[in-house]
Write a structure and sequence with these properties.
By secondary structure, this protein is an alpha/beta fold. The chain is built from 10 helices and 10 strands. The structure holds adenosine-5'-diphosphate and magnesium ion.
Length: about 250
């Protein structure tokens, strides 16, 4: 069954056609990758899927319901969560607090955190903290729970972002270049984390520039170039596709 269906999706910025008539489906429980050269429109696609941008045209159906043009907070509540290409964390808050606030739609902004403390939600907060700790354990960063998020290395901050995405409880998680800036060992770890996410029942859409990661992990791959889908299939099909080879020739892989 398709958890997500994207049909004829376009996003224009003035004269720039960042996405043009893109269609694809994502099966429940799949790891679906989106690849393409730098500037192809991948992040724009995520921004449309998560309500950070309003599509110019087309339709997005999630769990059989139309979500096209809904604001980000509503889409998040319906069960689509994401990480960012440029990490977005509360740098001055501890690692675990970052995950705690992600669990509650009302306090995801961090603004109502103080209110929660004051207003008899103390027990609930303890349960929320325990849950947050479990997410950190899942990512293998529980020993860093009390460290300030901004003080940690890039690779660790990316793991916190994933813990935050898990904490929303969303069944669909969008990862925007989760291995960017990682060394080979960290990249290996990230691949294991992504597989583990799938093993606990999450569906993943992955934007990834590391071809080894993409080819090794994806159930299916969509290739975008200049905002247009130029190929779709399993790794073997994508690797041998002339349009894909041409799109990548002499270009920085991103
Ligand atoms: N908010 C925006 N306003 C104007 N142009 C944008 C905006 N976001 C992205 N673009 C343009 O859309 C195109 C695709 O960008 P992006 O989705 O970030 O590509 P990718 O993630 O594949 O590298 C680029 O030409 C980029 O400059
Ligand atoms: Mg991008």
């Amino acid at each position: 069954m398709h958890l997500l269906k994207v049909k004829g999706l376009s996003k224009h910025f003035g004269g720039i056609r960042a996405l043009e008539d893109v269609s694809f489906g994502v099966k429940d429980g799949a790891i679906q990758s989106v690849i393409g050269p730098n500037g192809a429109g991948k992040t724009t696609l995520f921004n449309c899927l998560t309500g950070f941008l309003r599509p110019t045209k087309g339709s997005i159906v999630f769990r059989e319901a139309e979500i096209t043009g809904m604001p980000a907070d509503r889409i998040s509540r319906r069960g689509i969560s994401r990480t960012f290409q440029n990490i977005r964390l509360f740098r001055d808050m501890s690692v675990i607090e970052n995950v705690v606030v992600a669990q509650h739609p009302m306090i995801r902004s961090g603004l109502l955190q103080a209110v929660l403390r004051l207003s008899g939600f103390v027990r609930e907060e303890r349960e929320v903290r325990e849950k947050a700790f479990e997410y950190l354990e899942f990512l293998g960063i529980e020993t860093l729970a009390e460290k300030s998020a901004g003080s940690l290395a890039y690779g660790l901050q990316r793991k916190i972002e994933i813990a935050r995405a898990m904490a929303t409880g969303a069944p669909l998680i969008l990862l925007d270049e989760p291995t960017a800036g990682m060394n080979p060992q960290e990249t290996e770890e990230m691949m294991t984390i992504i597989r583990n996410l799938r093993n606990i029942g999450k569906t993943i859409i992955l934007i990834e520039h590391d071809m080894k990661v993409v080819m090794g992990i994806s159930d299916r791959i969509v290739v975008i170039d200049h905002g247009v889908k130029i190929a779709e299939g399993v790794a073997r099909e994508i690797r041998n596709d002339p349009l894909v080879i041409e799109a990548y020739l002499g270009k920085e892989l991103h």
